Structures are given as structure tokens and as C-alpha cells.
From TrEMBL:
InterPro entries: Glycosyl_Hydrolase_73 (IPR051056), MGlyc_endo_b_GlcNAc-like_dom (IPR002901). This is Glucosaminidase. Coiled coil: none annotated. Residues 132-293 form the Mannosyl-glycoprotein endo-beta-N-acetylglucosamidase-like domain. GO terms for molecular function: amidase activity. Keywords: Hydrolase, Membrane, Transmembrane, Transmembrane helix. It comes from Romboutsia weinsteinii.
Length: 302
């Protein structure tokens, strides 16, 4: 075999090897490695940075880190998450309040290529039904269906009354047992609001549970639809002075704390410590409800 042929074969072999390496690399980058993501770490860290400001979307942060680190999450640190999370927070010059920047604005800050930008968005799509409890996030699951049924009303409620969608939805889940309670199914009362003497609307007297354990018989408000129940729930909070602090808070953990502190529920652990805030936060994180807040905090900027 001539020397030229040997060189040619060597070059071809090298090209094939390099092409194979590039193919494997691209294949490994194709879908985000969900199982390598410490979801709890991303949620807790983004929540800490969001507190008192605006809600950061942990999935957006994870997707950007995934692209920057070539889909390797095994060595992702808290500081890595914080560094990217901070890029999403912006303070308004008009009212000095924080809001969430759009994804493309953060991608631009990082000077990402168009290919990287596309991959970030592909990774976000990969995470659409992913979280702490992926099995509960299937859109065909009854839990996701209930959330989607009231999500738009919760968004409108936030724009009109400033109660975060995550708080409205998580309270509805807790108070109505996912819309399965008699009050919810038959009378559209998602929050178990009673019909006191000043209530001018329709009411019904039924036996129901209170604080998840106590059984009571009382008069409760009746609504035409769930949207009316959500709107009245916000008005109920606004008209009651003890809940004033709820509206002063910007993020879901703070609003949940304020509700508990204001005496919305007396449900407690065995040692007597109140746990209503913990129940709300747990639901919000399990079902990614804080991401709806993040969406609304982004809209506030426009």
C-alpha cells in the first residue's frame, strides 16, 4: 500500500472518529438529564432569592445551567443556581419593585449563541411536566386537571386583588380536597367560606369538616361558579382587617406565613405548632404553582 493511501486512510479514520465524538456529544445534549437535577435544591435556592422580591422560575434557571454545563448537573452548586437566578431579577425605576425579566433578556445577558438559546428552550419544554412529584404533573391526571380548571381565575384574581395564584390554588386544594368536597362540587364554594349575617347572597346549611378534623354544621356561601368563589375569597380577605399583612407580601412563602399568622387556620402539629403555612408551601412546591406566580411577576414589568 502506498504512503499516500495510508495517509488518506488515516485522515478518513480521524474524521470518522471526530464525527462520532461530535455525534455522541450532541446526542447527550439533546434532552435535559432530568434524573441528575436536584429539584429540591433548585426550588429552595430560587425561593430564597425570590423572597420579598419576585418569584424566579426554577426551571428556567435549571435549563440555562444545563446548557452552560453541557447537560451536567452533578456538580451544580447553590452558588451556580444563585448566580443565574439573580439575572432574572430586575428593579423597576418607576415604583422600585422587583419583577422578573423575560427568558430572552437573560439569554442575551449571558451572550448565548442562537444554538444555545434554542437548547435552553428545548430543555424548558423537556421539564414541562417535571418536578418534585412528576407522577402528579401529568396533564391527564386529576390533580393537574383541577389546577388547570381554576388557574385562569386565580391569575385574574391576582391582577385584581394581589393574592398570588399559587396561594389561591393551594388554598382551594386544601379547603376543597381537590374540588371533591360537597361544598365545592354542589355549591362551588372552594374555600369553605361561611355565610355570616352580613352575607347577602345565597347560602346552604350543611355538615362539613373544619381544620381537616372537626365536623361542624353551619351556613355556607353558595356561588354560581368557581371563579365567583375565587373572587369572593379575595374580597373576604381584603374586607377583614386581620388579613391586611397578606397583601403586603410579594411571594408565596411570605403570603402563606401571613395567612397563618393572621389566624386563617388553626390546624397544628401534635406539639401545637401551626402548620397551615407548611401545608400550602408543600402543595405549591409539589405542583410547581410558584411558576404561575413567576409568570405574573414577569407581566408586571410590561
Amino acid at each position: 500500500m502506498s504512503k499516500k493511501k495510508i495517509i488518506a486512510i488515516g485522515l478518513i479514520s480521524t474524521i470518522v472518529i471526530l464525527a462520532s465524538i461530535l455525534f455522541v456529544k450532541e446526542y447527550n445534549l439533546r434532552e435535559i438529564k432530568k434524573n441528575d437535577i436536584d429539584v429540591s435544591q433548585f426550588i429552595i435556592t430560587t425561593d430564597e432569592l425570590s423572597e420579598g422580591k419576585a418569584q424566579i422560575n426554577w426551571k428556567n434557571v435549571a435549563s440555562i445551567i444545563g446548557v452552560l454545563n453541557n447537560n451536567n448537573f452533578k456538580n451544580t452548586s447553590e452558588n451556580d443556581i444563585k448566580d443565574i437566578s439573580k439575572l432574572f431579577l430586575e428593579k423597576s425605576k418607576e415604583n422600585n419593585e422587583f419583577f422578573i425579566l423575560q427568558l430572552d433578556e437573560v439569554i442575551s445577558k449571558l451572550d448565548m449563541t442562537s444554538k444555545q438559546s434554542k437548547r435552553v428552550k428545548d430543555y424548558i419544554n423537556d421539564l414541562e411536566h417535571f418536578g418534585l412529584m412528576p407522577e402528579r404533573l401529568d396533564p391527564n391526571d386529576k390533580y393537574a386537571k383541577f389546577i388547570n380548571t381554576i388557574k385562569n381565575a386565580a391569575k385574574i384574581n391576582y391582577e385584581e386583588h394581589n393574592i398570588l395564584p399559587s396561594i389561591t390554588i393551594s388554598q382551594a386544594i386544601l379547603e376543597s380536597n381537590w374540588g371533591e368536597s360537597e361544598l365545592s362540587k354542589d355549591y362551588n364554594n372552594l374555600f369553605g367560606i361561611k355565610a355570616h349575617s352580613y352575607w347577602k347572597g345565597e347560602s346552604v346549611q350543611i355538615k362539613t369538616s373544619e381544620n381537616f378534623n372537626d365536623v361542624i354544621t353551619d351556613k355556607f356561601r353558595v356561588y354560581k361558579n368557581q371563579g365567583e368563589s375565587i373572587d369572593d375569597h379575595a374580597k373576604f380577605l381584603k374586607e377583614n382587617p386581620r388579613y391586611k399583612n397578606v397583601f403586603d407580601n410579594k411571594t408565596y412563602i411570605s403570603q402563606a406565613k401571613a395567612l397563618e399568622k393572621s389566624g386563617y387556620s388553626t390546624v397544628a402539629y401534635e406539639d401545637g405548632t401551626l402548620k397551615y403555612k407548611d401545608l400550602l408551601v408543600q402543595i405549591i412546591r409539589q405542583y410547581n404553582l410558584q411558576l404561575i406566580d413567576s409568570e405574573m411577576h414577569g407581566k408586571k414589568a410590561s
